């Protein structure tokens, strides 16, 4: 069974467009959990454009009160403290999520759009990975489907990789390109398995392209926020979470 981790960034983005706490990110997390989500993902950024540090703290308490749920905190491990944002690593060490997904996004990026080049950043990442693991946090690295880079991920100590699926999703309506990109992900997943790394995936996955991507060998978890939030506008949040859970069943 492939786990569904619901990313709440877009809920926080709507909240932040006005003063106050509406919509309430924590209440929406509770709705997702009640609807069957396997976990919650957030990606706090230094500019606090959506998820804020206090959201992470409150969500950590909420999810620890439930059995068999995963809390996944994503972000740039090299982001510097800014205002009330303490930096990703200090925030993760404070809140101790089940998983921390390290992502090479800069402050001027609209969203994550590439994986790590570990030839450039692996030496800096290795001690941070060990620090998080020593605190009991599983570490996943946001990666392109490049077998050489995946081997480096294992060398520096990662537990998992999260395959960046943006180009695959963008090619969905171009079958030849889509199938070629999916095969690249299959090769990458096979290499991860050889290296003893578990595989997550995320970015622009939706109810359509999951029909193929869920067949990726060894896929453990998908993190979905944008598409699920858009679908929730039409069908409601509970129905959207349930629809994504159904879509991830291999026999669906």
């Amino acid at each position: 069974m492939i786990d569904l981790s619901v990313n709440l960034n877009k809920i926080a983005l709507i909240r932040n467009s006005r003063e106050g706490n509406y919509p309430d990110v924590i209440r929406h997390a509770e709705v997702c959990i009640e609807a069957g989500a396997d976990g919650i993902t957030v990606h706090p950024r230094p500019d606090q454009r959506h998820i804020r540090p206090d959201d992470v703290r409150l969500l950590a308490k909420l999810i620890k009160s439930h059995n068999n749920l995963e809390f996944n905190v994503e972000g740039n491990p090299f982001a510097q403290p800014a205002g009330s944002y303490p930096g990703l690593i200090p925030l993760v060490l404070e809140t101790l999520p089940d998983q921390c997904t390290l992502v090479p996004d800069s402050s001027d990026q609209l969203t994550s759009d590439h994986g790590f080049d570990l030839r450039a950043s692996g030496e800096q990442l290795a001690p941070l990975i060990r620090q998080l693991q020593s605190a009991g946090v599983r570490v996943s690295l946001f990666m392109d489907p490049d077998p050489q880079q995946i081997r480096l991920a294992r060398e520096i100590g990662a537990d998992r990789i999260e395959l960046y699926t943006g180009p695959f999703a963008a090619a969905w309506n171009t079958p030849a390109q889509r199938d070629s990109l999916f095969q690249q992900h299959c090769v990458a997943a096979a290499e991860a398995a050889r290296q003893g790394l578990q595989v997550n995936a995320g970015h622009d996955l939706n109810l359509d392209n999951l029909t193929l991507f869920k067949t990726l060998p060894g896929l453990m978890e998908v993190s979905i926020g944008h598409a699920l939030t858009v679908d929730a506008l039409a069908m409601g949040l509970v129905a959207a979470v349930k629809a994504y859970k159904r879509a991830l069943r291999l026999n669906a």
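The beta strands are 3-7, 39-42, 70-75, 99-102, 138-143, 160-164, 198-202, 219-224. The mean pLDDT is 95.
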